[in-house]
Design a protein that fits this description.
Elements lengths: L1 E4 L7 H20 L4 E2 L1 H9 L13 H10 L2 E5 L8 H12 L3 E5 L2 H5 L3
Parallel strand pairs: 1-2, 1-3, 3-4
C-alpha cells in the first residue's frame, strides 16, 4: 500500500481546499491505476468537519498518520505547491526513512496528463 503524503496546512482556506481536491484527484488516479493508496489529506479533511474541538493542524493527526506510514509499504510525496516547506510532509518522510520504507515522489501533473 502507498502512503500518499502531501502538503495541506495554510492560512488560506482556499489553498487548503485546493490541496485537498488535488490529493483526492491524485488518489483516484492511483486507485484507477490499480494501486492501493492511503491519503491522509483525503481522509482527514472530510472527517475534520465532523470532529469536535480538534484543531486543523498536523499535530492533531500525527499519531494516526505515523501508524498509517508504519502499515504502508511505500511512502510517496505528492509534489504540490508547498511540499518542500510542509512540516507534516517532512516529519512523515523522516519517519518513513527511519522505518526503511521505499520512498518515491509523484508529480501532480501525472493525473492531469491522464485526464483527471
Amino acid at each position: 500500500m502507498i502512503y500518499l503524503a502531501s502538503p495541506y496546512a495554510h492560512t488560506s482556506y482556499q489553498v487548503r481546499y485546493l490541496r485537498y481536491i488535488q490529493a483526492v484527484k491524485f488518489t483516484a488516479y492511483l486507485l484507477d491505476s490499480g494501486k492501493h493508496v492511503y491519503s491522509p489529506i483525503a481522509h482527514h479533511h472530510a472527517v475534520h468537519n465532523f470532529r469536535q474541538n480538534t484543531p486543523a493542524h498536523y499535530n492533531s493527526y500525527k499519531e494516526t498518520d505515523r501508524e498509517m506510514v508504519t502499515i504502508c509499504d511505500i511512502f510517496a510525496i505528492l509534489m504540490l505547491d508547498g511540499w518542500k516547506a510542509s512540516v507534516g510532509v517532512a516529519d512523515e518522510y523522516e519517519y518513513a526513512k527511519e522505518l526503511n520504507k521505499h520512498c518515491i515522489t509523484y508529480r501532480y501533473e501525472m493525473c492531469l496528463e491522464a485526464g483527471y
